[in-house]
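Fill in residues.
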């Protein structure tokens, strides 16, 4: 379809799409932070089948966490993503979707727990780290790359990191074998102007390397979807989302929203809506996630949502005034 020469400049954006944008569904991984990854196979298989039917590019099934640090008796199997568990979900034959896992710096026995690619159904290893863990993360990226995996770097909590340190980290990442780097709004504290600035900073740092820039947001300020759009408009070509926004605390950008926004005909929204109806409406009556005032307060204060999560699990989860007073009494 051609656009008339006298049409507004933005008209083509309203009827076209960018085929380079890839969507990763991290429902099982980020959602697992709500229940210690205690999802049964039926749930995980439904998410997998939904993503395949919807044409999603990647599904992240959990973490590769150290069993020395995290006792398996205290967590579900998706905290560790052992190969046998993964194969029960995805099968042994290649699926039309890439399988991803996340490995946290200093919390993963990556030399032994991440197998060579030819022995695993995993396609992509995403390494997550804080700014002080960059050296470890770079070794993890190299280890996974050398084993044959696509690798992505997740630099967390950038909303509290000085800009010069972020730029220094990006320079290191640009020289690594990672396929790309994600801007991660860990605390759900960023506004659109900040997302735009960071995304352009990341793109500039990766220029000429062929590396992608992605965005992972949280919904503390009800901006998960809006900030994901802002990152895309600013040039990011990888985005994270979860079905019904399921994720730690206030949750994430909703998969059902972002697929509709992208307008790529390869995506099929209906399977996701069916999963929302059949799985997530009942689940919402058993698990607590999504926007609430305590999460908005931690987002506004640019703090980790752990305090809000603890408050939501207490006796007065909806007393936002008492939580606000508590946060004002405590140092940031």
């Amino acid at each position: 379809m051609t656009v008339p020469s006298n049409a507004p400049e933005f008209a083509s954006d309203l009827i076209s799409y960018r085929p380079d944008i890839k969507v990763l569904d991290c429902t099982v991984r980020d959602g697992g932070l709500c229940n210690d990854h205690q999802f049964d196979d039926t749930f995980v298989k439904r998410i997998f089948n939904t993503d395949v039917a919807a044409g999603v590019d990647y599904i992240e099934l959990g973490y590769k966490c150290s069993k020395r640090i995290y006792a398996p008796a205290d967590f579900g199997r998706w905290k560790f993503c052992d190969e046998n568990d993964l194969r029960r979900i995805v099968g042994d034959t290649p699926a039309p979707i890439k399988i991803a896992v996340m490995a946290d710096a200093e919390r993963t026995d990556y030399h032994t727990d991440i197998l060579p690619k030819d022995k695993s159904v995993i396609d992509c290893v995403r390494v997550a780290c804080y700014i002080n863990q960059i050296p470890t993360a770079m070794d993890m990226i190299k280890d996974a790359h050398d084993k044959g995996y696509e690798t992505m770097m997740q630099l967390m909590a950038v909303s509290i990191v000085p800009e010069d340190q972020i730029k220094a980290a990006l320079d290191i990442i640009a020289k690594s074998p990672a396929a790309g780097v994600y801007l991660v709004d860990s605390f759900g504290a960023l506004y659109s102007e900040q997302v735009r600035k960071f995304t352009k900073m990341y793109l500039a740092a990766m220029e000429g390397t062929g590396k992608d820039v992605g965005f992972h947001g949280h919904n503390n300020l009800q901006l998960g979807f809006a900030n994901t759009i802002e990152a895309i408009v600013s040039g990011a070509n990888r985005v994270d989302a979860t079905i019904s926004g399921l994720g730690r605390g206030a949750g994430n950008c909703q998969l059902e929203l972002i697929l509709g926004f992208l307008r790529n005909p390869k995506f099929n929204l209906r399977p996701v809506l069916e999963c929302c109806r059949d799985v997530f409406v009942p689940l919402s009556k058993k698990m607590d996630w999504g926007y609430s005032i305590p999460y908005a307060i931690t987002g506004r204060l640019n703090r980790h949502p752990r305090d809000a999560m603890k408050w939501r699990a207490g006796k007065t989860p909806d007393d936002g005034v008492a939580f606000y007073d508590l946060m004002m009494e405590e140092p940031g």
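The mean pLDDT is 93.
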